[in-house]
Design goal:
Elements: E1 7-13, E2 19-23, E3 26-39, E4 45-52, E5 62-67, E6 72-73, E7 79-86, E8 91-103
Antiparallel strand pairs: 1-3, 2-3, 3-8, 4-7, 5-8, 6-7
């Protein structure tokens, strides 16, 4: 495998979506990401794009309000998967969002 310089992938946070708030004894963090894939090659390509929404095994930490767009989403693993076919010099944009709710006293890494 390896990196293909003819295919550019950019992943950015959606700035107007992220927020932090407190509701009762819980902290709520909303996250969103935008992914753009561009085929700079002279030939068409097909590829599988994957990302992940966090999952929690702790009952106090909940992942809610997931928006996966047109991705195939595996609820158990949190993996998002898109199968893309891009013609020469074409690009595709995908995005996903989720909300994390957890008790104020806990610290989590996202």
């Amino acid at each position: 495998m390896g990196v293909d310089p003819g295919v550019v992938v950019k992943r950015e946070k959606i700035d107007n979506f992220k927020s932090k708030s407190f509701f009762g004894g819980n902290r709520i963090i909303a996250k969103g990401y935008k992914i753009e894939v561009k085929n700079n090659k002279k030939t068409p390509i097909t590829l599988r794009l994957e990302d992940r929404i966090p999952i929690s095994e702790n009952k106090e930490i909940k992942i809610d309000d997931t928006e996966e767009g047109d991705a195939n989403y595996n609820v158990k693993t949190g993996v998002l998967q898109w199968n893309l076919a891009l013609s020469s010099n074409a690009s595709s944009k995908k995005q996903f969002t989720y909300v994390v709710k957890y008790p104020k006293g806990k610290q989590i890494n996202l």
